[in-house]
Amino acid sequence: MTKQKTHRVIEGVWRIESARIIGALARMLRDVGLAEELAQDALVSALERWPESGIPDNPAAWLMAVAKNRALDHLRHAKLHQSKEAELTYEIEGQLQDAAPDLEAAVADDFGDDTLRLLFVCCHPVLSTEARVALALRILGGLSTEEIARAFLATEPTIAQRIVRAKRTLSEARVPFEVPAPWELKERLGSVVQVIYLIFNEGYSASAGDDWLRPSLCEEALRLGRILAARMPAEGEVHGLVALMEIQSSRTRARTGPKGEPVLLMDQDRSRWDQLLIRRGLAALERAALAGGGYGPYGLQAAIAACHARAITPGDTDWLRIAALYDALAQLTPSPVVELNRAVVISMAYGPESGLDLADRLMAEPQLKHYHLLPSVRGDLLAKLGRYGEAKAEFERAASLTHNTRERDLLLARARDCTREPGELC
Predict the structure, then answer these.
(1) C-beta neighbour count of 139 within 10 angstroms
(2) CB neighbours (10 Å) of residue 82?
(3) Contact in structure between 414 and 379 (CB atoms under 8 Å)
(4) Residues 9 and 104 in one domain
(5) Which of 89, 254, 260, 325 could form a disulfide with 268 if both were Cys (CB 3.0 to 4.6 A apart)?
(6) DSSP state letters, 5-62
(7) b or e along 269-301 (b: 16 or more beta carbons within 10 Å of the residue's beta carbon)?
(8) What share of the chain is helix, strand, coil (3-state, %, to 5)?
(9) pLDDT-derived band of residue 120, with 50, 70 and 90 as boundaries?
């Protein structure tokens, strides 16, 4: 195997195994930053040795063993001044035994509890939302600083500084490496699912840049959501989150045209929707319902997505049920954005005039002052009512507010299609 191919294999193994390795080291060292540093040392060793010696039969176990040896060396050197060598060895070996009594079992345990603990640490409330997202992508997603910066259209130094500060904050706050106690779980779990969905949503509808979608971010978020659901099977809202991401991911192939241009939901070729992901999503939604307590915000959104997934054609969509689900969502998590989405649904269920009445009430909302989807929705509803001149102005305003190139092109195209001529469509 050539050196280039070996490096590709190493990169693939690292992307899959890095979270598990860092999680195991963090449990030993109680320091996420140091754990990542020593895990990176193991990666460097693989890059140096494997092109010459060949890829080991179990590359994951090799990386885990080298990384844990690095951690053992660190612990030994850190305590040399406190103990005699014999006492120190006994103490450290005890710590290592507690941390991973069976190396092979730890490696074979697919995304074990260490990964779950690491997820909760990266999403600790002591960090800002931006820091949680960046750190989770770095530590759990295995993305480079360059990849994260590109995904969120930030500079590399900005992202690097954000990650460094997050690690320092966790260290200074002495955040324990553990899944929260039951009485803390609800608050902490909310932070975790929020971060996972923020990552997913940025991939599903990129807020800026030249691409409409960033599938790699959706994949990372879905992977993290599946890990969480597997380890917390009694948490209905976690299953709701997974259901939502599975069903929305099923549309990926249909959401862009031949040139990468956006294709809106009602215009998509539904034969291109991934039926496996839809079945997985519907199964997760059923698990959310069986968990009891009713749907939370993610479960309700997943139920809405399920209505679209079950509709063979746009005309088969059960808009009355979707409207009822949005009513429940608005009561559970009232916000101007939910109300705007509800306006769209009301227009489909009861006519564009009803939807426009709701959208017009949101014009004075400070949170939506620079939100491009408000004029976009109003433009669509005005066009359906034949008020093409007003619709054109709204689409142009929406285009001026969006930071996504693909979306801007779509909105400007809709503005050009609008005309004051009677009978013309927008």
Answers:
(1) 27
(2) 9
(3) yes
(4) yes
(5) 254
(6) HHHHHHHHHHHHHHHHHHHHHHHHHS-HHHHHHHHHHHHHHHHHHHHHH---SSHHHH
(7) ebeebbeebbebbbebbebbbebeeebbbbbbb
(8) 75, 0, 25
(9) confident
Nearest to 63 by CA among 4, 9, 119, 18: 18
* Residue 411 counted as domain residue: no
Instruction: Indicate whether 326 belongs to any domain.
Output: no
The mean pLDDT value of the chain amounts to: 84
Cα–Cα distance for residue pair 307/321, rounded to 1 Å: 8
Specify the higher pLDDT residue, 75 or 365.
365
% of the chain surpassing 90 pLDDT: 39
Same domain, 149 and 92: no
More confident residue, 84 or 3: 3
> Quick one: tokens of 394?
């709204």
Tell me the three state secondary structure of residue 93: helix
The answer on pLDDT for 316 being more than 90 is yes
The residue among 235 and 20 whose pLDDT is bigger is 235
Q: Which amino acid is at 62?
A: W
CA distance 278 to 271: 12
What CA–CA distances, in Å, run from 380 to 208, 352, 367, 371?
22, 9, 21, 15
What's the whole-number mean pLDDT along residues 35-58? 88
Check residue 99 and give its pLDDT: 46
Helices (H), 336-403: 336-350, 352-361, 373-384, 388-401
Range of the domain at 208: 110-212
Q: Are residues 136 and 142 in contact, defined by beta-carbon separation less than 8 angstroms?
A: no
